[in-house]
Structure formats: structure tokens, C-alpha cells
Design a protein that fits this description.
The protein has about 130 residues and is mainly alpha-helical. The protein has one domain. It has four helices and no strands. It has helices spanning about 5-15, 20-40, 45-70, 80-110. Helix 2 packs across helix 4 and helix 3 packs across helix 4 (about 80-110). The protein is globular.
């Protein structure tokens, strides 16, 4: 593996993950497009939705690490050097970020929040 190119990475990941590689890849593309659509529709990030999505993202990070151990047929006791632990942390962070984006997009598409009166262009009533 002297040269690292996209075809080599696809072959390695497909060998490791089987048919689920393509399902994960499609899910990543769909989640990214849905996230972009929600951002454009809402004209920015909704903070409350982002916090809830980040909480869901932690579960996604844990699920990614569990999936890593299932795919590689290993346990945390098999992790020997620091690079193994760094890779596990990287997989957790990747799962966290991907799950956060996906959860934000799902919440934005299926449970849209109503903008406050002042943000809709109407005159706000002050107490």
C-alpha cells in the first residue's frame, strides 16, 4: 500500500464493513444534504436544537466505537499502543460529529421550531 488513493480506501473499508459501507456512505451524504437544507431554511443554527443534537451525538459516538469493536472482532483489552487509543478516540469523534449533524437535520425536518415573534418580522410586544 505504497500509494494512498480513494480506490484503495474504498476497497479496504468495503472489505472491513461489507455491504454496510455503502449504507453508511449514503447515510452520510443524505444527512449532510438534509443538514444544509435545514440551515438554509432556518437561515442559521437554532441553539436549542443544536444542544439536543449534541446530546444525541454522544450516543452516536459510543455506537461508532461499539461498531468498531464489532467490525474488528476485538475488545478494549486488545488495544495495545497509543495509536490504537487515538484511533478509537478519532472514531468516537467522527461518530459524534456525524450523529450530531444527522440528529440536527432530523429534528429540523420533522420537528421544526417556531421562530420568536421578533425574528419573523412582526413587531414584538414589550412588557
Amino acid at each position: 500500500m505504497k500509494d494512498l488513493d480513494v480506490a484503495t480506501l474504498v476497497a479496504v473499508f468495503q472489505e472491513m464493513m461489507g455491504w454496510t459501507f455503502w449504507a453508511v456512505l449514503v447515510a452520510c451524504v443524505v444527512a449532510t444534504l438534509a443538514f444544509a437544507a435545514v440551515l438554509v431554511r432556518d437561515r442559521g443554527v437554532v441553539a436549542a436544537r443544536l444542544v439536543r443534537a449534541e446530546l444525541a451525538g454522544v450516543l452516536g459516538g459510543v455506537a461508532a466505537v461499539i461498531a468498531m469493536f464489532a467490525v474488528t472482532n476485538s475488545t478494549p483489552g486488545d488495544m495495545g499502543g497509543p495509536i490504537d487509543w487515538l484511533l478509537a478516540v478519532g472514531i468516537f469523534v467522527g461518530g459524534l460529529i456525524g450523529s450530531t449533524i444527522g440528529a440536527y437535520a432530523l429534528m429540523g425536518l420533522f420537528a421544526p421550531t417556531r421562530a420568536p415573534v421578533a425574528l419573523r418580522g412582526e413587531r414584538a410586544i414589550e412588557a
